[in-house]
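Duplicate of earlier report; Transmembrane 4 L6 family member 1 input re-posted below.
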Amino acid sequence: PSLCRVAMCVGKCSRIVGPCLLVLGTLSVAANILLLFPGGASKYLAEGHISKHAKAMPGIWGGGIAVSTAVSTASFLACLWSREEGMEQVAPLHPPSTFSFPQLALLGAAACFVLSGVGLTNGPLCFYNASEHGHGHGTLWGYPFLDAGSQEPDARTENYLHDRHTWSICLEPAGVVAWNVILFSLLLLVSATEMVLASLQILNGCLGCLCGFCEGK
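Output:
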């Protein structure tokens, strides 16, 4: 049947999805770890001067561990299922891991995407001159771009992401704004790709199950 041909095609494509997700999961973990060490310095983490969104570590537990664990477990169970099938034992029409584990990967990637988007929008925690923003006097640790958007909803995005001249307001850590933008943008890209690949795996599972019913007939 044509449905089975589609399932076979999607199945062949999905063979590269697992390794790709493992690579993306590793990249997600690495990007989040770098967020904890702005400019490569460790003192800010020790002092607690790290963005709360970076400390939430969505790239580690969401885009990294959840995705990698789901892929590894699904591959292991699929291998056992294939071995049982080769021994002509009674086996389900399709590996149960095809359904549950890609959904876990999709959920982890989605959580990483949302939290990374919030972290990118709110901007980094940095040591800045509060008097320039009219929110007090002297220098302090805070979220200057989040404060700038408290009165005008669109000002934060306009002044922060679209105007690099405002990035110099952060005195410490050096280059933290660019560090924050690049790494959170990378997490957004990685998690979005993970969601697409996990969705393909779910689609493959559904088509494989339907194909099994077709072959049963």
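The first strand starts at residue 126 and ends at 129.

Merging into the original ticket.
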